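Most newcomers find our protein records easier to grasp once they have seen one. To make this concrete, we reproduce a full record directly below:

…
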Amino acid sequence: MLGNADLSIAERLLALPAVMERTNLKRASLYAAVGRNEFPKPIRISANRVAWPESTVAAWIASKIAEAA
């Protein structure tokens, strides 16, 4: 069984281009959705970089599919 530390290691962090590719959102639309709390906020991974945990992006995509059903 994986502990919390193991889960965080197994989690992939997605940079903006990967998030844009997976969601089909452009940069401005993505950050506007973040500002409206309609898309997960990124986490800071360094002074000049942010990323999204892959699981949060996948959950958002799943929620959009569920809304459309």
Remarks:
- Residues 12-68 form a domain with the Recoverin; domain 1 fold (CATH 1.10.238).
